UniProtKB/TrEMBL annotation:
Keyword Calcium: no
Entries under InterPro entries matching the protein: HTH_HxlR, WH-like_DNA-bd_sf, WH_DNA-bd_sf
Organism name: Streptomyces alanosinicus
Lineage: Bacteria, Bacillati, Actinomycetota, Actinomycetes, Kitasatosporales
Protein name (database record): HTH hxlR-type domain-containing protein
HTH hxlR-type domain boundaries: 51-143
Signal sequence, start to end: none
GO molecular function, one term: DNA binding
Keywords carried by this UniProt record: DNA-binding, Transcription, Transcription regulation
PROSITE patterns according to UniProt: HTH_HXLR
Disordered: region residues: 26-48, 145-175
Length: 175
């Protein structure tokens, strides 16, 4: 069964409940018309074929999209808590990404205005599991190499805070 998306809360409702200020609302409203949401079967950035993989890479390759997905893997979050989990990203960018992820049926909005992953969104997080494991192996490999001048990785090979020792995602981590 395909999950349906709940309508977005209107800007006036968001202002009334304190979710956003009036200035944030006007910034958000202006940013809602930037780029179309990538969809399989339609040309996307980097591909005219519309192959599903290319559409997914376009969607998830957009700034902050994967981070939003990652932060929602632990359960529903409201706009401000999600923004905080995402290192206080700008409201306009977050609203644009949420709009795209809603349109792509990866995220949906609950009646109480919180956002959560749809079954497709949860599947996407599961699909990232092997990439998380690969990234841990990659980090360990880089740590075993002599230090390079441009290396940003700290000595000692500590794990990323979003993973546990075996490289699997840690539930509820803030990233």
């Amino acid at each position: 069964m395909v999950a349906t998306t709940a309508p977005l809360v209107s800007f006036s409702e968001a202002i009334a409940d304190g979710s956003v200020s009036e200035s944030e609302a006007s910034t958000l409203e202006a940013g809602l018309h930037a780029m179309p949401t990538p969809k399989p079967g339609k040309p996307v950035r980097g591909s005219t074929t519309g192959r599903p993989l290319m559409a997914a890479l376009d969607l998830f390759g957009r700034r902050w999209s994967l981070r939003i997905l990652w932060e929602l893997r632990g359960g529903p979050l409201g706009f401000r808590p999600l923004q905080k989990q995402c290192d206080d990203m700008s409201s306009s960018v977050m609203r644009q990404r949420l709009t795209e992820l809603l349109a792509a049926l990866v995220v949906h909005q609950l009646p109480d205005s919180r956002y959560e992953l749809t079954p497709l969104g949860r599947d996407a997080c599961l699909a990232l599991g092997p990439l998380v494991q690969w990234s841990e192996r990659w980090a360990a490999m880089l740590d075993s190499q002599p230090a390079h001048r441009n290396s940003e990785r700290p000595a000692g090979g500590t794990s990323h805070p979003d993973t546990v020792g075996d490289g699997t995602p840690e539930r509820g981590s803030a990233g």
